[in-house]
Amino acid sequence: MPQVLILGATSDIAIALAHKFGASGADLQLAARNPDSLQILKKDLEIRYQVDVKVCSFDATRFDTHQDFYQSLEVKPDIVICVFGYLGDQSVAANDWQESKRIIDTNYTGAVSILNIVANDFEQKQRGVIIGISSVAGERGRQSNYVYGSAKAGFSAYLSGLRNRLAGSNVHVITVKPGFVDTSMTAGLDLPKMLTAQPAQVASSVFSAIKKKKNVLYVLAIWRLIMFIIKMIPEGIFKKMKL
Ligand SMILES: NC(=O)c1ccc[n+]([C@@H]2O[C@H](COP(=O)([O-])OP(=O)(O)OC[C@H]3O[C@@H](n4cnc5c(N)ncnc54)[C@H](OP(=O)(O)O)[C@@H]3O)[C@@H](O)[C@H]2O)c1
């Protein structure tokens, strides 16, 4: 059975992924800034699915700890899912470098830092799956969230490059673009129901994307069309739109 490492395991999408992979019999390593908060989830998963669940401490923005973090894993993973992220507040980020930096470091720099280490291990073993939860926000910068969007754009480009590098090494890299998801990150936002996935839907799509060898996954297919249209709008028109 595969060993699945979930980075940012307290997130709603991560919890759904833990259930999906646990139900398939995979052993789990749940990594988060506050591992104590994962104890109830760990017990639940162990009892429900009879799998081995370990919890460990991981902070995406403490880059200097990432090598030791990966080294310290007793069993190295077969599948790594990079779920952590930070939406932040664009209006704050525009005036406060610390907020911009937190958005960039959490969504981009931290992911590069840890996945560089994972990629080298998988390349050497000539197997593995790396999954990054990116965002459609990275496909075109908009005034309402362009710091987050640019960090996710960087992350998507990083995953694309990693996929290209590792294609000959039997390592599968999947970029996930979920569209809107009903999680604590979007709590309080008035999201259109038709365009909003549930965390369990994201988890099921990710799970089957591994089997189907998908490279880029739009959880709700409609988002592929929406983003195609958004990208086709000429810049002269786009810059005047309130998006
Ligand atoms: N919800 C959406 O509509 C949507 C759409 C597209 C993409 N996404 C992406 O999906 C992923 C999961 O988000 P979510 O919607 O499930 O929201 P969420 O429940 O708010 O999850 C965010 C997670 O990131 C973790 N995190 C933040 N900073 C971290 C750090 N420095 N180190 C380690 N973990 C850190 C949080 O951990 P703590 O518990 O420690 O705060 C939390 O578990 C994110 O990458 C997000 O950008 C979400």
Explain what you see.
With 243 residues, this protein is of the alpha/beta class. The chain has a single domain (3-238), classed as NAD(P)-binding Rossmann-like Domain (Rossmann fold), CATH 3.40.50. It contains 9 helices and 9 strands. The chain has helices at 12-23, 39-49, 66-72, 90-93, 97-125, 146-166, 199-211, 222-232, 235-238; strands at residues 3-7, 27-32, 53-57, 79-82, 128-133, 171-177, 180-181, 196-197, 216-218. A 7-stranded parallel beta sheet has the order 3-2-1-4-5-6-9, with helices on both faces. A two-stranded parallel ribbon has the order 7-8. The termini are far apart. 39% of the residues are buried. The mean pLDDT is 97. Bound molecules: NADP nicotinamide-adenine-dinucleotide phosphate. Residues 8, 10-13, 32-34, 58-61, 83-86, 106, 133, 135, 178, 180-181, 183-186 line the site of NADP nicotinamide-adenine-dinucleotide phosphate.
Layout of helices and strands:
Blueprint: E1 3-7, H1 12-23, E2 27-32, H2 39-49, E3 53-57, H3 66-72, E4 79-82, H4 90-93, H5 97-125, E5 128-133, H6 146-166, E6 171-177, E7 180-181, E8 196-197, H7 199-211, E9 216-218, H8 222-232, H9 235-238
Parallel strand pairs: 1-2, 1-4, 2-3, 4-5, 5-6, 6-9, 7-8
This protein binds NADP nicotinamide-adenine-dinucleotide phosphate (NAP).
Residues 8, 10-13, 32-34, 58-61, 83-86, 106, 133, 135, 178, 180-181, 183-186 line the site of NADP nicotinamide-adenine-dinucleotide phosphate.
